[in-house]
Amino acid sequence: MANIVNDIRLAVESGETAIGLRNASRAVVSSRAKLIIISSKLDQSSAEDIKHIASISKVPVVVYDADSMGLGTVCGKPYSVSALAVINPGNSRILEEKY
Q: Hey, what's the torsion of the CAs at 20, 5, 10, 51, to 10 degrees?
């Protein structure tokens, strides 16, 4: 779990990400997203929707084992984050790892 925490933080700080369910969905639809990370506590309907969109676009989805506040904290944000799209990983190796 420590690796994914570091990789998410590095991707947010040094790369390009789309934070939030709506922004992450837009990044997938526009073919910019390379990876989607969702909170494990995301409501089932929203999780199924973004997983469906991602599967059509062949974008992998990782379920982060924490609630939205935990994902927000990892992203360095003072608010909850239900989903995150990695557009450019920056210095992170998040696209190379299997979670």
A: -40
| Residue 28 domain boundaries | 2-88
* 29 close to 57: Cβ distance less than 8 angstroms: yes
d(CA 18, CA 88): 10
CATH number of the domain enclosing 40: 3.30.1330.30
- The pairing of strands 61-64 and 35-39 is parallel
| Tally of domains within the chain | 1
> 3: Cβ–Cβ under 8 A, 6 or more apart, which residues?
97, 99
Q: pLDDT digit string (tens) for 8-59? A: 999 999 999 999 999 999 999 999 999 999 999 999 999 999 999 999 999 9
